[in-house]
Structure formats: C-alpha cells, structure tokens
C-alpha cells in the first residue's frame, strides 16, 4: 500500500518518467532509506537508472562514518552504484560565513547535481516528507513569510523531486518496520539548537495537545496553496513584462539591476505587487533566502514615496525611488566611482568628405555623433563628467550644467557619473548618447564633418 501511494503521487505530479536516471540522496535515516526502497521496487516497472549519493558532513565523528558504511552496504544489497562525498562542514561554514545547516545544505545539493550531470541523469530525488512540509510552513510563518511561504515544500523544484512528500514520518517508519529494514537515527535531531528541531521537538507536541491533526492541517494548507501560487506566478509573469525593465551596466564592472515602474504598479493588487517586488529583489540578489516581508514592505513604501528616497536591503542591495521608477541594485564598490577620469571606452574619429553642394554620406553601427570639425578647439578628450561641466544648449550661448541636464532627463543619480563625455580643450562637445553642444552643430558652412564614435576598449 505504501509503495502504491508513493507511485500514485509520483504520477500525479509527474516527478519521474519512465527511463529516467535518478540520483537518490540518501543519508541513512528512515526517510531516505524508505525512498530508496520504493525506488528499487519501481525501478523495473519504470525502467529507472538509479545511483545513490551519500554526503558525510564529518560533524558526528564515528556515527557519521557508520551512517556512510550502512548506506553503502544497503545500496550494494539493492544493486545500486554508490557515491560518497565528504566535507568538513564546520570549516566550510566558517569559511563562507554560513551556519552549519546552510553550508551542509549548499554542499549537498551541489554534489547531488554535480553527480547528476556527470552521469547524464535526469533528476535528484530527496526524501522530504509530509511532516517536513508542515514544519516548513510553520517555520515560514514564524519568520514573517509571504503567502508563498505557506506553500511549504513543493513536490518538484527544477531538477529536485520529492517522491515521499505525501507520506508522514509515522507512515514511513511503519513501512520500514513492516519490511524489517534498518535505518540510522541522527541523534542531533533531538537537540534543539536549530529552529526546525525546536519546531519538531517542542512546538509540534504542544500543538498536538490542542489538535492531534494540527501538523497534518498545515500540510493540507500547503497543498491548497500550490495551485494558487502557480496561478500567482503566471499573473506576476505578465506584470513583470509590463512593469519591470533591466537596468544594465549600472556599475563600471557590468553589474545590473532592475527598474520597477512605480506609478504602474500602483494599479495592481497588493499581493501581486509584493510578489513582483520579491521577484525583483531575489533576481538582483541571486537568491531568495533572508529576503523577508519587511524588506518587501520597505520597497513597496517607495511606490508611494518621493523621488530620492532609499532603503538598504540584504546582500548589499539598495532600492531607490528615482522619479517615476524604483531602481533595485547592488551597492557600487568605492573603487567604481568615476568622476573626471578616463573611461574604459575608446573614442574613434573619422572625417566624412563634404561635396561642393554641402552633401555628405555616413554610416555607423555604434554610438556616434556628427560635428563640425572646424569648430573643435585643441585636442579631443574622452572622460567622465566633472563637477562644474556644462554644455551650450542654444544659439545665444545659453548653458546648462550637466547635473541639471541629467536631472531634467531623469537619469538616475548613480548612472550620471558613468556617462562618458567628449570635450575639447575649451568645452563639452558631446554628452555621449544624450546631447551635443550647440556650437559644434553642422551648418551649411561646414566643410569638414567629424564623426565621433564610441567603442568599448574590449572591442579594439
């Protein structure tokens, strides 16, 4: 009956297809041993190729080595190839500034996927169960999750599948006892140093005094959320296309960010607005972990705030209201400030012949500007803006400081210092891609047209 229920869950959520190659992450505990046993029983029926991957975190001394040996022996008994990766997780956590729990999880999934790619397999199977899902929902709630957190653990995430997610820990252990299959127990699971252990060992027992099925109700809530989250994702996909744009190369090292149309997102529902903000934040950060409701709420407040307002965020991010948009980006390193120095770009010059009737031909693939070469004073310089730079804007010689020009053009403050300018010995000729000085314009008296073209140095 147990195997049948797991099989039906696999089919319902399309977790494993006939002929799949599966890397099974097996710790030696009841959950992973039960999963491996079920996969063994389904292997012939589904023509599965299965390899076992065990991670020795080297945190529990002899006990960890015993777990490794047991998984190796059971894998060989079932006829599956066995692979093991060993790492001092405590040292790894210190080196990477992570908790031992975070470092262990990161290392596990890296090795699972590394082996999957090496073998040319299709997915990685891990043994989360129904109780894990309930614990995750409560954990997310306690940390201040959005509605997404109420979905707990999903049956599939990319190439990670969870065949036992429907089964409770009690059902899993009963299955193994019935088959007389041994498993290892990690005694650290009974220590309450980790938040999840406290939920499992302290909070859940108290909840069950109120309602014996309380943890199961949390799991049901998560399952009810799955289709809602899927539908929300589709809606947010559409809003992202309309209301967000990439902010490319906002740092000199090519770092990118995301713009959100602040006025536009006022018209959408709060749920979708918050999810859109969360997606933008995690996209810039490169991860979702540790980005919480308070961070989303702080960025959402910018939607109704004044231009220039900023909020600091995790992972060295900042969000700033810039006129009618919100820019989410990583904070630029101090060395990236570029004012009054040479750029990493190159100025290419070429003269365009002018006929007696004043006609000329030109073509160009890059960013370029055409000016009257006869009006250039001295040498040409390609640089970034300096503090008092200004440009002539009309026939009367009226000037506008570049700081005001950028402000009028609604160019974000942090982008302004990285816009190249071309100058001669006396004045600004061209703010690249924005505006040319009026006095350098081509007229009917021009007999030498100079083409200014900007190229990345890497292209040379």
List its salient traits.
460 residues; alpha+beta; six-stranded mixed sheet; 14 helices; elongated
How would you describe this protein?
There is one protein chain. With 460 residues, the chain is of the alpha+beta class. The chain contains 14 helices and 20 strands. Strand 1 (21-25), helix 2 and strand 2 (49-56) form a beta-alpha-beta unit. Helix 4 packs across helix 5 (100-119). The longest helix is centred in the middle third of the chain and has 30 residues, at 214-243. The N and C termini lie far apart (68 Å). Residues 334-342 have low confidence and may be disordered.
The gist of it:
This protein is α+β, with helices and mostly antiparallel strands. The chain is built from 14 helices and 20 strands.
